[in-house]
Amino acid sequence: MRSKQVFKINNTPLFIDQLKAWSKDFPAKVWLESSGERPLYSFYDFILAAGMESEIRSDTKTAFENLEQYQEKTGDWLFGYFSYDLKNAIENLESSKVDALLFPELFFFQPQKLVLLKGNQVEFHYLTKDKRAIETDFKRLITEDFKHPGQGVLSNTSPKIKMKIFKEEYHKRFLILQEHIQKGDIYEVNFCQEFYVPETEIDPYKTYEKLNSISEAPFSSFLHFDDFYVISASPERYLKRQGGQLISQPIKGTAKRSEDSAKDLEIKRHLARDTKELTENIMIVDLVRNDLSKSAEKGSVRVEELCEVYSYKQVHQMISTITSSVGKDKKSVSLIKDTFPMGSMTGAPKIEAMRIIEKIEASKRGVYSGALGYFKPNGDFDFSVVIRSILYNQSKHYSSFTVGSAITASSKAEKEYEECLLKAKAMREVLEN
Which of 20, 252, 337, 364 is catalytic? Predict the structure, then answer.
C-alpha cells in the first residue's frame, strides 16, 4: 500500500534537477522525462522511482510468466526493462553473439519512493511504512541544494570509440540482407551495429545530462541498479496501455535537421514524401497492426496517424500511431508478450527477420531495442523503445551504443550507413567529451 501527498511547486525545472541529484544516493533508481514537448498520450512530465523494496530479474524462458506472477504478488508500481533477447522466450529463436555488457535480460523493481510531476503539481507516492518521510523529503528538496559538481563526462580525456564492424564489412552484410529480400525470405529488416568504449569510466549522471541536452527526446530515461546504467534519449514509444486502449507509435524515417530554417523545412517536406521512407513506415504499421490484433477486440485496430513527421532537436522523424481496444481481463504482461519486440526494430515477416538478424549482426543486442518503462498498480503501462541510448557496465568499464536502419529492396548501402552515423552522432559527441 502507498500513501500519497500532493504539493504545488514554483520552479518545475529546478525541482526536477533537485530530484535527479537527490536520487544519486539510492542504490536503484529510474527517472523518465519528456524533454521539450510532452509526447501525445503521456501520463506525466517527469517520474522518479527510487529505492528498491523488491525486485525481479530473469534470464530464463519463463521470464514473462515470472514477471506476471511478481506483478500480481506486489500489486504495485514496477519499473524496469525487457531486453531484446527475450524474443527467445516467445519464439523458437536464440542469441549466440558476444555480450560484453552482461545486463540481465529482464529487470523490474518495486520502488520505495515514487515522485510524479505534471505541470507545477508534484505527487509523492511512498510505501505506507515510509509515509512520514514525504513532508521531510519535500522540504529538503525545496530548501537544500542537491546539485553536486560532476567529475566530467569521462575520466580519460581522449576515449577511443571502436566499431564492431567497419564500413566495408557493413556493405558486405548489407548485400547478404538484400539477397534475403530478393529471395523473398523477408521484405524489410532492421540492421544494427554496435559502437563501444572498452576500459573506460564515465560519470553516468553527467553523461545523461549532456545526451539529453543534445537530443531533448520525448522519452528520455535514466535507469541504474548494481553496476548497470541505461542512459537513453529515445524518441520512440513502444507500447502504452490506458485502460482498455493500447497505443503503439513506431518510427521509420529519419532526416538530419538544418540550422537554416528554409532548408530545414524543405528537408522535412522531402522526408514526408520520400517514397522509400514511406514504404518502410507503412510496412511496420502493418506489422504492428498484426501484433495488436492478437489481443484486440474485433475490428478495433486503427491507424490514428500515418507517416506524420515530427521534429526533434537533431533530426526529423516519421511516426505512425496505431491503437486498439482490449478487454479488461487481458493481463498487461501478456499484451507486451504478444507484441514484443517492437516491429520497427525487427522487420517483416517478424520472426524470420529476427532469425536473420541473429546471423548477420556482430553483437548481442541486449537491452538495446528492448523496452524501458513502468507498470501502474491498475495494470496500465507505458514503455519506450531503447534506442539512441548509452549502456554502461561500471564494473566491466565498458560503455556501448548501437544504431541501425531499415533495409528494403530499394535501400542503398551508402545511404543506410550514413543514416546509422547520423543516429550515432549525439552518443559520439557525449562519449568523446
Answer: 252
